[in-house]
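PROTEIN DESIGN WORKSHEET
SECTION A - STRUCTURE
LENGTH: 255
TOKENS:
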């Protein structure tokens, strides 16, 4: 542990697996106490166990980020347990209906995608900001958008629009709070080897190989590679960085 975040408290949503779990581990490695939030209780508790086994401190709070009462309770529980909130990684997200073009897309899949990928990020920021501004100390929020929030691709209308929305929301809030101690950025991962990628591959066979072929580095990313960008954005090393949408994508956003 380098201890860079010693005495600090981090909150990670979607931390039961994939990028969120890797980030929760990385925050703990840096010495932060971590609140692990997810709708998946089994995976969330597992992340907490891993952190505790490595000598860290963590709690799991079962949370659906699309529900305001649950998000408010998540922040309350974090502050009640650890006394403060310094870093938040709003990462929970999903992709449903991927491969279906706009005219055929269902309202149900549209609403589900946007309620988690966009409204969920806003709700988390809303309650995190209230706490962070009350503290008045240095704090940072990082959201998970996607390269699908920087460039469109066909047959993915809800996911792409939710991630473009996440980028817009991040930049708006970054500007709104630029004169405070709170910096707000997002990461835009390219294809990363997680359960999400596996589910898309199942729905659209060949999609994983196609995604890899589109990456200039000619490989997909690992969750830990996104987590390290999040840690940097939260650290004092990124002290002049706010309202940024940062690709973590092996060069794909430059194409
Ligand atoms: N894997 C990729 O290729 C990729 C690329 C770009 C962006 N992303 C984004 O990264 C983020 C993390 O995804 P991942 O790839 O690690 O996939 P993942 O499926 O492993 O992780 C997503 C997590 O979010 C949780 N979650 C889903 N709905 C939730 C809700 N309503 N409330 C709380 N938690 C909820 C899931 O239970 C899961 O643990 C997502 O926002 C995703 O859109 C992923």
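SECTION B - SEQUENCE
RESIDUE ASSIGNMENT:
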């Amino acid at each position: 542990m380098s201890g860079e975040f010693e005495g600090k408290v981090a909150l990670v949503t979607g931390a039961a697996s994939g990028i969120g779990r890797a980030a929760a581990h990385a925050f703990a490695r840096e010495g932060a106490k971590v609140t692990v939030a997810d709708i998946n209780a089994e995976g969330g508790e597992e992340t907490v166990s891993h952190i505790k086994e490595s000598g860290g401190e963590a709690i799991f709070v079962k949370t659906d980020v699309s529900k305001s009462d649950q998000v408010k309770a998540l922040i309350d529980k974090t502050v009640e347990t650890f006394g403060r909130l310094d870093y938040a990684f709003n990462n929970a997200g999903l992709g449903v209906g991927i491969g279906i073009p706009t005219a055929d897309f269902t309202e149900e899949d549209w609403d589900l995608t946007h309620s988690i990928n966009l409204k969920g990020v806003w709700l988390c920021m809303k309650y995190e900001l209230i706490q962070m501004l009350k503290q008045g100390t240095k704090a940072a929020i990082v959201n998970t958008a996607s390269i699908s929030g920087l460039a469109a691709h066909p047959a993915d209308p809800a996911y792409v629009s939710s991630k473009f929305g996440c980028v817009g929301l991040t930049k708006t809030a970054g500007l709104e709070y630029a004169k405070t101690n709170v910096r707000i950025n997002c990461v835009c991962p390219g294809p990363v080897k997680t359960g999400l990628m596996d589910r898309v591959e199942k729905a659209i066979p060949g999609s994983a190989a196609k995604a890899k072929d589109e990456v200039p580095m000619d490989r997909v990313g690992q969750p830990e590679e996104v987590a390290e960008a999040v840690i940097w954005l939260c650290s004092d090393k990124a002290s002049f960085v706010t309202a940024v949408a940062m690709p973590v994508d092996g060069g794909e956003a430059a194409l």
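SECTION C - NOTES
The chain is about 45% helix and 15% strand.
The pocket of nicotinamide-adenine-dinucleotide is lined by residues 13-14, 16-20, 38-40, 43, 63-66, 91-94, 116, 120, 144, 146, 189, 191-192, 194-197 (CB under 6 Å).
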